[in-house]
Amino acid sequence: MHTDTTRALLEITGEDGVSFLQGLLTQDVTHLKPERALYAALLSPQGKVQHDFFLFAQGDAILMDIAAAQKDTLLKKFSMYKLRAKVALRDASADWRVAYRTRAEHPAVGHCTAKKGVVLVTDPRAAELGERLYLHDAQLSVKNTASMDAYHQHRIALGVPDSTDILDDVAMDAGLDALGAISFTKGCYVGQEVTARMHYKNIARKGFYGVQGETRLPAFGTPLMAGSVTLGTLRGSQGACGLALLKFEEVEAALRAGTPITVDNMPVALKPPAWLQPKLAQFRAARENQ
After folding, report:
1. pLDDT tens by residue, 103-119
2. pTM for this structure?
3. Disulfide-capable partner of 108 in 78, 116, 120, 157 (CB 3.0 to 4.6 Å)?
4. Which H or E run contains 279?
5. CA angle 44, 27, 58 (to 5 degrees)
6. CA 283 to chain centre
7. Do 246 and 223 contact (CB within 8 A), yes or no?
8. pLDDT of amino acid 1
9. Where does 7-166 sit in CATH, by number?
């Protein structure tokens, strides 16, 4: 069985657990129910992504699936925000393993317990991503889990960024609204002012594009160019396929002019993913109304 060692699980318990998270996160945590998992983020006051994660309920606890490299930093931040709230926080990574199914025979709806010790969650960012599996029994093994390479190839093909791809980006530029991580009807949270302003003023500046190269793509952060103009930077990649966070204005101008787009002098083709299309249409409509 394939498991993802780059993910960690944090556990939030206590009578103030929901209200504690509700005041901090982009997502409306009151919508968290046994049949529904959520995608959410903690932002800086400037609206930049500090952490993104998945939330699911397990008994009286809320479990948070986060990048393992970020868990200690997030625990420290939560401890700072906790003050007198009746909430307990702990690293539950030793109790859980994370796996994926990208082609489940019987896709779950929301999330359900398929058998003792296993929680199956339809990825809340996009159902096409498949299922996230959480195994609470160290001896338990399940069939048909995807290898890490297969999972990330599938994710990149759908144009969905990973946690490390969006760190310190403005949440709205990174598409967290389009991926379902942001509620615009809940109360205040960290970074709300910038996020809400961009939403209600229809400000669309950047988005993730699929990138197809001729050979293996270069390192994370390599700029994509249209002549002498920088469009943005490469983020995640698997071989010749990758993702790049690019500026709409510059990409549209390059496409209109027929300017070749390159990364490290390699010609590449761009493809906006399906989930980005509404935001791209929003940008185009705003440009036409100028």
Report:
1. 644 444 444 444 578 89
2. 0.93
3. 120
4. helix 277-288
5. 120
6. 21
7. no
8. 84
9. 3.30.1360.120
- Hunting for tokens 């944090």 — which residue is that? 10
User: How far apart (Å, rounded) are the C-alpha atoms in residues 206 and 276?
Assistant: 10
Question: SS3 for 17?
Answer: helix
The arithmetic mean of pLDDT across residues 173-193, rounded, is 96
In the chain, where the domains are located:
7-166, 203-288
Tokens 């990574």: give the residue: 93
Q: Where are the beta strands (DSSP E) in the chain?
A: 7-13, 38-43, 49-58, 61-67, 88-91, 97-101, 111-115, 118-122, 131-135, 206-212, 223-226, 229-238, 241-247, 261-263, 266-267, 269-271
Instruction: List residues bridging with 118 in a β-sheet.
Output: 115, 135
Place of tokens 């959520």: 38
CATH of 203-288, one of 2.60.40, 2.30.29, 2.40.30, 1.10.10: 2.40.30
